[in-house]
Design a protein that fits this description.
26% helix; alpha+beta; 99 residues; four-stranded mixed beta sheet
Length: 99
């Protein structure tokens, strides 16, 4: 069973090492010629990429830092802190799974 980040109990599921996932959407801005990605599950996950192929990498890179901040709201993120994802899989259908 997968637990969605942002739903009730997801932090407990993370500490129990259960697989987590989050949703995101990708839209194309034809005027600016960029792809815009946002997530309703992870606050602050909003960015633009020039290429659709870059979206996949940037989604996980940004999500790692933002989820760490959600897990530790009282701490400042430092680069030596571990990021919470162990195994990662992202597809462009609009979801990402972490295990």
């Amino acid at each position: 069973m997968l637990y969605r980040i942002g739903k009730f109990g997801w932090k407990l599921a993370y500490y129990l090492r259960l697989p987590l996932y989050f949703r995101y959407t990708v839209q194309q801005d034809l005027e600016a010629n960029v792809f815009i990605a946002t997530s309703p599950d992870i606050k602050g996950l909003n960015f633009e990429c020039d290429k659709l192929s870059d979206v996949q990498k940037v989604v996980l890179d940004c999500a790692k830092y933002l989820v760490w901040g959600m897990l530790h709201p009282d701490k400042t993120f430092l680069s030596e802190h571990p990021v919470p994802f162990r195994n990662e899989h992202v597809n462009l259908n609009g979801w990402a799974m972490v295990a």
